[in-house]
Write a structure and sequence with these properties.
The complex is a heterodimer of chains A (663) and B (100). Chain A has 27 helices and two strands. With 663 residues, chain A is mainly α. Chain B is 78% helix and 0% strand. Classes of the chains: A mainly alpha (663), B mainly alpha (100).
């Protein structure tokens, strides 16, 4: 029976371990022999490894089209104990294949882009030998992310979950000796890692509870038990889902653990695009979608997820309005959009959440990559003037939007692709973001009016800050010599931008109202509520997006602000105190610093000084000192005179004999 | 026949003389002689009890003690010669470098 069951399965599914293995082969090749290969071959191997992964994902998708239904491909035994078996088993279903396609598809484009970007970056930072290391890390990331999305059980998922966290840490700290005071990047990497550990703690506790409650960690096993008898596990499910939410907040940068993502922009731009916008940070959304059966059984947890997502969406959007670093704006925008997705999956609108995840992967990767192209252009412009007059020792920040302006003439390709990404993100019809965001808004309108209001405000702010960015970067007058001398990037950088721009434009067809292709596709795996597209809401949000862009034009486009260095943002006058709050990120970092970091440090100080030095070391030192004192007293006995030794012997003998006789 | 207690008394006197010799004299050769005195005090006891109990074991044991003592004296005198060569003296109080 088992054999016939295997025989019926499409042999294509047997390929699924290769989506993880191929990137690992790529990274091993680069690790072992990459030193002897040139940059060209290193980039080619890494891109091919990721590209091959994408090809296999496509094959899996086609195979799933022929044979629907989740398929488990056993690979290796992992833990074999009486009553508990856990394997490295891959799961192929519509949800995992969708994620695989996004990860490897966008990942491959970013690999190609990175071959061009890192070529300049390693030279700009003065260490070309790190080119290979970058691609090793990038391939490792793809492998881990694939492991995360193709896992068949929570523990395997957790391995990928930790793996992508590690890659994130390694890549944020890629230029670990650079940054503020030569420590900035290293501190950013450390912060990301520690904040993620807090989330991972929640994730681990959730897995422990799942294991003790259900006795298995396989998705199928747990979900079947939940569906059969949800009320029996009510408390456990609530605990699991809430702890899982903590993990999601860490990985997907939600309130209150989002603080690591803006700092993570210290990594090279392709990393920001791949890990901190398109893929890794969406792992939390994937996790909730995957665990939908658990969340549906715990409405309280669903509400918590929705509120966390919605509040994050609005909160991060307000901060994004007042940032001047081109990547920081995108970082806060990413947090905000992740909030949208988390809110969507929290409301049970799995399709809407995943739809936005896919389109967001397209346009946010595009925006980051285009921002990288802008940064490269600024660096090139800066180097041109450096050559002209060599004595200019002024500090130059190629990411500061105040130093940009009027780049649309000098960077036409970058400008047009950036514009497409920005419009898609703002939700302008008929670009991808319009459809996905409106599905979320439609779901919110039927869930709770408060959520709806918060999300629509966030959507309005999204359009506003993207408009602000476009006008500050690409219009007005060039506000620095570097901007005036900027030049367009090479084609290897531009081609991925064009592909992603096309995807951002047409991405909406995935789930067009009427066809609902994605919804039917996902419904094969996860029970989704059908989400009709509500035209009135779509129209309203479209209008709001246009108003947002128009207001951005009023403030930043028409009046051409920031003409001289040091001129405050025009909003600073209008909004006053609120603007200062937004510019300072609502002092959340400072708040955490005083609430958690400082007390922890003083507590550690107390333990280190008073307890460790004062008690534990004192015990050891005191013991040593008293023994030395005793030994000093006794060493007088060893006087070297043989006759005194003989006397000692005699006394000892007499004492022993006396004891034996008097006993 | 002489009572056994006489032998015991003589042996005790010899032994204590030996101990006092070892503890009080500084000349290594005299210390050696004092050591021999202690050996012989015990030998005397062996022989006395052997005769008293009519068992030959004690007498045989004395031969062993004599042989071992002879070997020990040979080693000890060799050491003395070596020490005398470096220190030009056989005063044991001069040999006190191994102190704590």
């Amino acid at each position: 029976m088992l054999l016939s069951g295997i025989a019926r399965i499409d042999p294509t599914f047997g390929l699924v371990p290769w989506v993880v293995m191929l990137p690992i082969i790529g990274l091993l090749l680069n690790l072992l022999i990459g030193k002897r290969l040139g940059e060209f071959w290193i980039g080619l191997i890494a891109s091919l490894a990721s590209g091959a992964s994408f090809v296999i994902s496509v094959l899996l998708m086609l195979a799933l089209g022929r044979t629907p239904g989740p398929i488990t491909v056993p690979f290796l035994d992992w833990i074999t104990a009486p009553g508990f078996n856990l394997g490295w088993n891959f799961r192929v279903d519509t949800l995992s294949v969708t994620m695989m396609l996004v990860v490897s598809g966008v990942g491959t484009l970013i690999h190609i882009y990175a071959t061009g970007y890192m070529h300049s970056d390693v030279r700009h930072n003065g260490e070309p030998s790190r080119y290979r290391r970058f691609f090793v890390f990038l391939n490792l990331f793809i492998a881990d992310m694939m492991l995360l999305v193709s896992a068949n059980n929570y523990l395997m998922l957790f391995v990928g979950w930790e793996g992508v966290g590690l890659c994130s840490y390694l890549l944020i700290g890629f230029w670990f000796e650079k940054g503020k005071d030569g420590l900035g990047n290293a501190l950013a990497a450390k912060k990301a890692f520690i904040v993620n550990r807090i989330g991972d703690f929640g994730m681990l506790i959730a897995i422990f509870i799942l294991f003790t409650t259900f006795g298995t960690l396989n998705f199928d096993g747990i979900f079947t038990k939940v569906q059969q008898n949800a009320p029996a596990f009510q408390g456990a499910i609530l605990a699991v889902t809430l702890f899982m939410l903590l993990g999601v907040a860490g990985k997907s940068a939600q309130l209150p653990l989002y603080v690591w993502l803006p700092d993570a922009m210290a990594g090279p731009t392709p990393v920001s695009a791949l890990i901190h916008a398109a893929t890794m940070v969406t792992a939390g959304v994937y996790l909730i979608a995957r665990s939908n059966a658990l969340y549906t059984a715990a409405p309280a947890a669903q509400a918590a997820v929705t509120w966390v997502g919605a509040l994050t969406a609005l909160f991060a959007a307000t901060i994004a309005v007042a940032q001047f670093d081109i990547k920081k704006v995108l970082a806060y925008s990413t947090i905000s959009q992740l909030g949208f997705m988390v809110a969507a999956v929290g409301m049970g609108a799995i399709t809407a959440g995943l739809f936005h995840l896919i389109t967001h992967a397209f346009f946010k990767a595009l925006l980051f990559l285009a921002a990288g192209s802008v940064i490269l252009a600024m660096e090139r412009g800066h180097e041109t003037i450096e050559h002209a007059h060599a004595d200019e020792g002024e500090e130059f920040d190629p990411q500061d939007m105040r130093a940009m302006g009027d780049l649309q003439k000098r960077l036409p390709w970058t400008f047009w692709t950036y514009l497409m990404g920005a419009l898609a993100l703002s939700g302008i019809a008929p670009l991808a973001g319009f459809f996905s965001k409106d599905e979320i808004l439609a779901a919110a309108s039927r869930n709770s009016p408060w959520i709806f209001v918060i999300l629509i405000l966030a959507a309005f702010l999204t359009a506003f800050y993207m408009g602000r960015q476009i006008f500050l970067v690409f219009f007005g007058q060039a506000r620095s010599e570097a901007a005036a001398n900027a030049s367009e990037s090479s084609s290897v950088v531009l081609i991925p931008l064009v592909i992603l721009a096309v995807l951002s434009i047409i991405g909406g067809v995935l789930n067009l109202p009427g066809t609902s292709f994605l919804e039917k596709w996902i419904a094969q795996t996860v029970a989704v509520k059908p989400a009709p597209f509500i035209w009135s809401i779509a129209g309203a949000s479209f209008a709001l997006a246009l108003i947002g862009l128009f207001m951005a034009w009023l403030v930043y486009g028409r009046r051409k602000p920031l003409a001289y260095p040091g001129e405050p943002d025009p909003l600073a006058h209008t909004l006053g105190e609120v603007y200062i709050g937004m510019q300072n990120k609502w002092w959340v970092d400072e708040l955490y610093q005083t609430m958690f970091v400082r007390p922890y440090q003083s507590f550690s100080e107390l333990l280190a000084q008073a307890v460790d030095l004062g008690v534990i070391d004192a015990i050891g030192n005191g013991l040593g000192r008293s023994i030395r004192w005793l030994a000093n007293a006794w060493r007088r006995m060893e006087n070297g005179f043989v006759r005194s030794y003989a006397l000692t012997l005699l006394i000892g003998l007499v004492v022993i004999l006396a004891y034996l006789m008097l006993k | 026949m002489v009572p056994i207690s006489y032998y015991l008394g003589l042996s005790a006197i010899l032994f204590v003389t030996g101990i006092l010799g070892v503890l009080l004299r500084r000349n290594a050769l005299v210390i050696f002689m004092a050591l021999e005195l202690m050996f012989n005090a015990s030998n005397l006891l062996f022989v006395a009890f052997s005769a008293y109990y009519k068992i030959l074991t004690g007498q045989i044991f004395v031969f062993f003690v004599m042989a071992v003592a002879a070997a020990e004296v040979a080693v000890g005198l060799a050491l003395m010669v070596a020490i005398f060569r470096t220190k030009h003296s056989v005063d044991v109080d001069q040999v006190n470098v191994l102190k704590g």
